[in-house]
Amino acid sequence: xAEKNDSFYDKTRGKKKLSIRNVIILIxxxxxITAGVILYAPIAGRRTVSADEYKFxxxxxxxxxxxxxxxxxxxxxxxxxxxxxxxxxxxxDAVGDPYTVFLNQKEYQDLMTQTTGSxxxxxxxxxxxxxxxxxxxxxxxxxxxxxxxxSGDIILKVNDQDVSAKEMDKAVSLMKGKPGxxxxxxxxxxxxxxxxxxxxxxxxxMKTVKxxxxxxxxxxxRITQFDENTASSFRNTLNGLKAKGMKGLILDLRDNxxxxxxxxxxxxxMILGEGKIVSTVDKSGKEEVIKSDQNKLDLPLAVLVNGxxxxxxxxxxGAIKDFKAGTLxxxxxxxxGIVQNIIDxxxxxxxxxxxxxxxxxxxxxxxxxxxxxxxVIDLPEKVKQNPGDIKPEDDTQLxxxxxxxxxxx
Length: 409
What we know:
The chain is α+β, with helices and mostly antiparallel strands. The protein is built from 11 helices and 23 strands.
C-alpha cells in the first residue's frame, strides 16, 4: 500500500490535525452518499440515517475507539500507517478464505511479477492445508528444487520465525530477498519428520513451457505454471513437435500450481474439440461458460498429474478427462476449484478475492476433492525422496504414459 502521512493529534500544541479518524469517517460517509443510502432530513439541523447505516457507522466507530486506546496508552510510538494497513488486512482475513487477501504495494508487485516476469527468491508455490503452509510445488530448476524441497512439504518456520497459513504473506516475504543471500526453512515431511534446510536465493526466471521429442516420435511438453506467455509458448512448442512428425503427446502438469485461467483455457482450446471447457458460478448464481472451437489436437494424448497439480492445471486436466480427449495418469490432484480476481485499488495495493467456483464440463466441482486420474500410479519411494534428480527410466508415471501412447499410435 502507498503510505499516507496522516497524523491524529498534535498534543503539544493542543490542535487537531487532519486525522486518520476524519479520513476514514469521510470515506465512509462519502461512500454512503455515493451509493445514495443516506437520507437527509432537515430535522432541527440534523440528518437521519437508517438502522443499517447506523450499525455500519457504529462498527467503524469501534475501530476508531480501539485505535485511540492503543495510540494514547501504548508505551512506544505507534505507526499509524501500519495500524491502518493491519486493520484492512484483518478485515479481509476475517472472511476466512486463505485465497482472499489484501495485498500491500510490495505483495501486489510480487504477485504481478509471478505472472509476468522474474523475481528473487527460492522458487516455491505454496498453499493452505489445514491452517499450515504447504508446498504445492517447487519451481523447476529453482534453488528450492535443487535443495530437495518437494510437493507436500509443510513449512513450519522461516529464519526461525513460526509461520502458518494465516501468515502466508509474511512467510512468502521472508523467503524472498536478494540473490545470493541465504534463508533457513524448517520443514515437516510426512514419513521423514522435521528438518532444517538452508537455501541460497536466486533470480527465478519463469520459463513455463519445455518440450522435446521422445523415442517413437512421442512428443513431451511440460508446463510448470500458467502465466500470460504460457499459451503462446505452448502453441509454438506444439507446432514444432508436429513439424518433426509427432505421433502422440505426453502433457506433464505435475507440480503445476496453476496461474491464469485464460492461459489454461487457451491451451484447452488447442487440444479439445468443440464444447464447454469450464464454467464459473459467482455468489449471485451467475454462470459464465468458456467454450472451445471445433479444432483439436487429434493425436493420442496422455496427461501426467499429481498432488501438486492445482487450479488452472485442474481446469485443463479436468476438461481433457471429461472430453475423453486423453488419459490422465498419476495421483489425485490438489483440489483448488475456486477462481480469484485481483482488484487494483489504484494506489499500488490491491485485493485478491475469491469471486467464483469453477466446474468441469461434466458439472463437477473439484474444490477440496481433486481429480482422480484414469490410471492411478505413484512414483517409487526413492524417486519421491529425490524429485529433483529423477531419471526417465525411474519415472513410473512417465513410463506408463509412454506405454499408453504406444498402444494408440
